[in-house]
Amino acid sequence: MKEDRQFLMLTHLSQLAGLVLPSAGSLIVPLVLWMSKKDEIYDLDRQGKDIVNFQLSMFIYSLVSLVLLIVGIGFIMLLVIWFISILFPVINAINVNNGKPYSYPLTIQLLK
């Protein structure tokens, strides 16, 4: 297995594909990258699972926020989720490229 920080960085940044491909692009693109290279690149399996868990968590939180639109708080929650969904992939891509630890907040560990 080889170490490839640039591919790891690209995998984290691929979550931003949802800005261009709104229908699940944030999940599908990193999922394809992870599944295609997880056995070839050092630490990609763990990071890929973390990315997918983060995106699934953001999806779940978005669904809850949509329900909470009825009482008015849902709009603010959707804005916070949108901000977190853009900010942390960028921060973590930079950290991974520099060999530093990364973390995704509010992530439900669905894949282990």
Q: What's a concise summary of this model?
A:
The protein has 112 residues and is mostly helical. It has 4 helices and no strands.
Keywords:
112 residues; mainly alpha; 62% helix; elongated
Explain what you see.
The protein has 112 residues and is an all-alpha fold. It has helices at residues 5-13, 25-37, 44-67, 74-97. The protein has one domain (5-97). Helix content is 62%, strand content 0%. It is built from four helices and no strands. It is elongated and about 50 Å long.
Count of beta strands = 0
Tally of helical runs: 4
Order of helices and strands: HHHH
Give the end-to-end Cα distance, rounded to a whole number of Å: 21 Å
Structural class: mainly alpha
Average pLDDT score: 93
Counting structural domains, the number is 1
Strand content: under 5%
SSE blueprint:
Layout: H1 5-13, H2 25-37, H3 44-67, H4 74-97
